[in-house]
Amino acid sequence: MCSSDLTISGVGTPGAKVEMANPDPDWIESNVWNDLCVLGGLPAFKDFPVKFTESLVKWKRVFDSIEPHVIEFPAPYGTLSGLKRLCVLRCLRRDKLMDGIQLFVIGEMGQKYVEPPPFDLRACYDDSTITNPLVFILSTGSDPNKDLLELAEGQGMLDKLKSIALGQGQGVIAAKMIEKGMTDGDWVLLQNCHLCISWMPELERIVEEMDPEKIHPDFRLWLTSMPSKAFPTPVLQNSVKMTKEPPRGLRANLKTTYLKLDDAKLSLTDKPMAFRKLMFGLCFFHALAIERKKFGPLGWNVGYSFNETDLDICASQLELYIGAYDEVPYKVLQQLTSVVNYGGRITDDKDMRTADIIVNDFLIPKMLSDNYKFSRSGTYFSINPDPDAPHKSYMEYIDSLPLNPDPEVFGMHDNAAITCAMNEAEDNCAIIVSLQPRVSSGGGLTREDVMAATAKEMEKKLPAMWDLEAVSMQFPTTYSECLNTTLVQETTRFNALLKVMHRTLYLFQLALKGLVVLSAELEAMGNALFDMRVPDPWVGKAYPSLKPLTAWFEDLVRRLVFLQTWIEQGNPPVYWLSGFFFPQGFMTANLQIGRASCRERV
Q1: Within 10 Å of residue 568's Cβ, how many Cβ atoms?
Q2: In this predicted model, what pLDDT tens digit does every residue of 191-229 receive, in sequence order?
Q3: Do 367 and 278 contact (CB within 8 A), yes or no?
């Protein structure tokens, strides 16, 4: 393998990519310009890279703007339709893509389609029958038990609600419970079906054999389960499916909480005004605790599953202590909230300190003052609700809040939102790509043609494996040259990756021609190539990377060029630290070389 054979242009790029030099690398990153050139390969944007280069100053204003999804683009692209604007935004400012999509949906369909509706379990119950199970699809931070208990109480079925948590040996008990429930008209709740996989075929049989003529009209079968391939498909198809996820955004969190309240619930205790204001502070703290997870380690070191139960307990304690004391015991409420209730889920000491600091902004005497501000902008503050209609006052204020909160309300810099916004945009783009049709229309290339062309091009550009024995002989292990060991180790690791790539690319092309069986692994690999994702067999042998397929392949080739140059020309004057498979080994080798030099001088 020689370095001159390693070219890295345009691997897997769909369409006729425009080849132009980056007009201003000082502010246009290479991946951004590459995306813009790929965009120029589309008929609607065939002159875009040229026009972009001619209006660099104006486009830089868009790039530097706080709200690039709102401002007008430079001519002649100022009148782009919503979807085309999103294409440009995806290339130039990916962190604002989701905000742009939100505006696009509002403009095309209406505001209600970007605001999650409240969870209505009663409506789901009304849609069910005695032979249709009601399935809760669980997600992190969701707890449907409280909603089910409230519904059972409203329907007069609280005493007839029978529940069991499935697990090893619980299947027989569950079957008897269902049999008795069908006779007596009970509600039967089977929790965590995904933990009792072996009993799922029996559950499928029970559901399929349900005879409406022999079942009590009050009977209902409730099931909860995490997403699982073992869950019976016929049961899922015959059921009313529900999922309850924590609402996204401060506004949505606050609105979901206050939709369950009313004037009576906001007028408890003999100090109703203090209770209302501190209750709002408590709800705001709960929304912050949930929303901080989107910032990753900047929000919480560990992604905790805070849910409504934590808030309900804190609200009950708030009502109790305000009514029991003449003066509001703020310190007690702070400790109960941050250390006991929410702190019971927190396992990291830094996160515990963070919770203490945040709660100290809300459960304090300032909450009772007029318009106490929660952030520098003053957008979020403690309102003075109408004494005669407090619930309406809070709902109107919540509706006036922005859909997407700025990081400043979390006490963070604006840049804190960039990473999570880009990750969210990437995830949603991946979902959109996965929903593409699997057949072509209009005489274009078929899906198989695209995958075959991509695999063939990558196989052509992929270098051969190194002769490890020759490399080991050329760079033997010696005490004075520890970097030789690093080179041998790196080539060994990259050889393992190259072996998998050569094998899978070769077999996949044969499978498309019908010469070998298209296994599940090869089919998944083809889907990944079509979606521009790194196939799982490669990920398992490769170094950690978040890049899409084209950028990942180019990066791989650059790493191989670096190692090949080292093999051909000896130790390089400059080492590409992040290009190593295992950079720690390189640092250790340098440390050993330094120690050897010291011993020689002594």
Answers
A1: 11
A2: 888 888 889 999 999 999 888 888 999 999 999 988 888
A3: yes
The single-letter DSSP state of residue 343 is T
Q: Where are the alpha helices (DSSP H) in 406-482?
A: 416-434, 447-461, 468-474
Residue 82 carries which side chain, given as an amino acid letter? G
- CA-to-CA distance for 587 and 483, rounded, in angstroms? 9
The helix (H) or strand (E) run that includes residue 572 is: none
Could you tell me the pLDDT band of residue 597, with boundaries at 50, 70 and 90?
A: low
Largest CA distance in the chain: 96
What are the respective helix, strand and coil percentages of the chain, to the nearest 5?
55, 5, 40
DSSP, collapsed to helix, strand or coil, labels residue 305 as coil
Q: Which residues of 73-105 are buried (b: 16+ CB within 10 A; e: fewer)?
A: bbeebeebeeebbbbbbbbbbbbbbbbbbbbbe
Span 443-460, average pLDDT? 82
Q: Over 90: is that where the pLDDT of 446 sits?
A: no
Residue 598 has pLDDT above 70, yes or no: no
What was the pLDDT predicted at 278?
93
Residues of the chain above pLDDT 70, percent: 93
Q: Whole-angstrom Cα distance, residue 85 to residue 91?
A: 10
Task: Report how far Cα 548 is from the mean position of its chain's Cα atoms.
Answer: 16
Q: What number of other Cβ atoms are within 10 A of residue 330's Cβ?
A: 16
Mutual angle of helices 583-601 and 483-512, in 10-degree steps = 160
Chain-wide mean pLDDT for the chain? 86
Structure confidence by residue, pLDDT tens digits, 384-442: 988 889 999 999 999 999 888 888 899 888 788 888 888 888 888 888 877 776 655 44
Q: Which residues of 510-536 are buried (b: 16+ CB within 10 A; e: fewer)?
A: ebbeeeeeeeeebeebbbbbbbbbbbe
Tokens in use for 483?
Answer: 């970097």
Asked if 487 and 566 touch (Cβ cutoff 8 Å), the reply is yes
DSSP code for 25: T
- Name the packing angle between helices 200-208 and 171-184 (round to 10°): 20
- Going by C-alpha positions, the residue among 594, 597, 590, 598 that lies closest to residue 485 is 590
The residue type of 247 is P
Exposed / middle / buried, residue 346 (Cβ in 10 Å: 0-12, 13-18, 19+): buried
